[in-house]
Design goal:
Blueprint: H1 10-22, H2 29-35, H3 39-63, H4 69-77, H5 79-109, H6 117-134, H7 136-161, H8 178-193, H9 212-238, H10 248-253, H11 266-295, H12 302-318, H13 323-332, H14 334-355
Helix pairs in contact: 1-7, 1-9, 1-11, 2-8, 2-13, 3-8, 3-9, 3-14, 4-5, 5-6, 5-11, 5-12, 6-7, 6-11, 6-12, 7-9, 7-11, 8-14, 11-12
Length: 376
C-alpha cells in the first residue's frame, strides 16, 4: 500500500517510536508487582529480547514496502484468511486503545478524584480525533518536542532525587522466584515493547524505506533506555514500598525537595505521562480507523473517526471495574493474548511470505486511503 499525501522522515519515525514506548511508563507497576526490586533487570532483559522481534517488523516493512499490515495480511494469507486475521488485529489495536484510555483515566483521578473519569477520557479522545483529521504526519513532526520534554523530565527528576537514592534497595538481586521473574520479562516484552507492532500500520508513510531499520532501532533504544532509567529511579527511591503505589513515578517525584523551593514536582510526571499517552493513543487510534476503513473498503477514514472514538470512550468506562482488575488482567491474561499478535502472527507472516516469495515484484502496490485521499 502506498500513501501519497502523508510522509514521515526517518528522524520523525525515531521520535514517534520513542514517544510511543515512553507512553507505556505509566503502566510500569504491572511489571513491578511481579519482579519487585528486580524490575530494572526484567526491563533490561525484555529490552534485549525484543530486538529479534523488532527485526521481524523491520523485515516485513521492507519486504512489503508501501503496504501496511492489513494489506500484507491479505497478500500473504489470501483474501479470506487475511481478512480474518486483519479483523483480529483490528480488535487487538482497539483493545489496546481502550486499555490505555482507561489507564489515563485512572491516573488523572489521582489528582482530581471528584471529577468523573468520563470527562478526562472524552476530552482526551476529542484531541486525538482532531489529530487524525489533520494527519498523522503532524503528530510525527511534534513527536520530537514531546520526546525532548519527556527526557528533560526524566533526567531532571533523576538528578533531583539522586541525593535521596538508596542503591541498597537493589540488593539482593535474583531473590524473586524465577517463575515470577520470567513472567515479568514476558509482560515487559509483549506489552510496552512489543506493542510497536502497531507501527506496521505507519511504515507506509516513511519517505525512505531504506531508513526504516535504523530509525526503528534507534527509536526503540531511545524509548527502552528511558523506561530503564525510570525503573532504576523508582526502586532506588521507594525501595520495597514501590509496589504498593498505583503510580510509583508519581510517588517518587513527590519526594523532591530542593531547599523548600522546588517541591510538588509530581506535576511534571502528570504532564509527561499525559503528553506521551496522547502520542500512544493517537497512533493506536489511527491504526484502528485505518484498519476499519480498509476492511470496509471505505474511500476515506474520516467518517469512522467519531464512531470509533465514541465506542472507545464507552468501552474504556466499562472494561474494568477497578484498577486492581486492570492490573490482574495486564499481568496474567493480556500478555498471553498479546503474544499472538506481537510474536506469533508476525513470525508466521514473514515465514509464509518468504516461502511463497512474496510480494511479487511485478505487482504494483495499490493506492489506499489516508485522511484526505481516496482509493484509486
Amino acid at each position: 500500500m502506498h500513501y501519497e499525501s502523508s510522509k514521515i522522515s526517518k528522524g520523525e519515525l525515531i521520535y514517534l517510536i520513542g514517544a510511543f514506548i515512553q507512553g507505556s511508563v505509566i503502566f510500569i507497576s504491572f511489571i513491578g508487582n511481579l519482579t519487585k526490586h528486580d524490575t530494572w533487570l526484567a526491563v533490561l532483559a525484555g529490552f534485549i529480547i525484543t530486538f529479534p522481534i523488532i527485526a521481524i517488523y523491520i523485515e516485513l516493512g521492507k519486504k512489503f514496502a508501501g503496504r501496511n499490515l492489513i494489506a500484507i495480511l491479505e497478500i500473504t494469507f489470501g483474501t479470506f484468511l487475511g481478512k480474518v486475521v486483519s479483523i483480529l488485529y483490528l480488535c487487538f489495536f482497539w483493545l489496546l486503545l481502550v486499555f490505555n484510555l482507561k489507564g489515563l483515566g485512572n491516573f488523572l483521578l489521582i489528582f482530581m478524584p471528584e471529577t468523573p473519569m468520563a470527562f478526562f477520557i472524552v476530552i482526551f479522545v476529542i484531541v486525538c480525533a482532531y489529530t487524525l483529521t489533520v494527519g498523522i504526519e503532524v503528530l510525527a513532526r511534534l513527536s520530537f518536542l514531546f520526546v525532548v520534554v519527556a527526557l528533560l523530565i526524566i533526567c531532571s527528576t533523576f538528578l533531583f532525587l539522586l541525593k535521596d537514592m538508596n542503591f541498597s534497595n537493589f540488593l539482593p538481586i535474583f531473590v524473586v522466584p524465577w517463575q515470577d521473574f520470567l513472567h515479568g520479562i514476558h509482560v515487559v516484552t509483549v506489552m510496552p515493547f512489543g506493542e510497536i507492532v502497531v507501527f506496521l500500520m505507519v511504515l507506509p508513510y516513511i519517505n525512505n524505506i531504506n531508513s526504516v531499520a535504523k530509525s526503528t532501532t534507534i527509536g526503540f533504544i531511545l524509548g527502552g533506555i528511558s523506561f530503564l532509567i525510570i525503573a532504576i529511579r523508582n526502586t532506588a527511591i521507594l525501595g520495597s514500598t514501590e509496589f504498593i503505589w498505583s503510580s510509583p513515578s508519581l510517588q517518587a517525584t513527590r519526594l523532591i525537595n530542593i531547599g523548600n523551593i522546588l517541591t510538588r514536582m509530581d506535576i511534571l510526571i502528570a504532564t509527561g505521562h499525559t503528553i506521551l499517552l496522547f502520542v500512544k493513543c493517537s497512533i493506536l487510534y489511527h491504526a484502528v480507523v485505518v484498519s476499519f476503513s480498509q476492511l470496509l473498503r471505505l474511500r476515506t477514514y474520516l467518517p469512522v473517526i467519531i464512531p470509533v472514538g465514541g465506542i472507545s470512550v464507552t468501552l474504556s468506562m466499562i472494561v474494568y471495574e477497578s484498577t486492581i482488575d486492570h492490573n490482574i488482567s495486564a499481568q496474567n491474561t493480556w500478555p498471553i493474548v498479546a503474544t499472538l499478535f506481537v510474536v506469533v502472527f508476525p513470525s508466521i507472516l514473514l515465514l509464509t511470505a518468504a516461502m511463497r516469495n512474496q510480494p511479487k515484484r511485478d505487482v504494483p502496490p495499490k493506492n489506499v486511503l489516508s485522511n484526505d485521499q481516496t482509493i484509486k
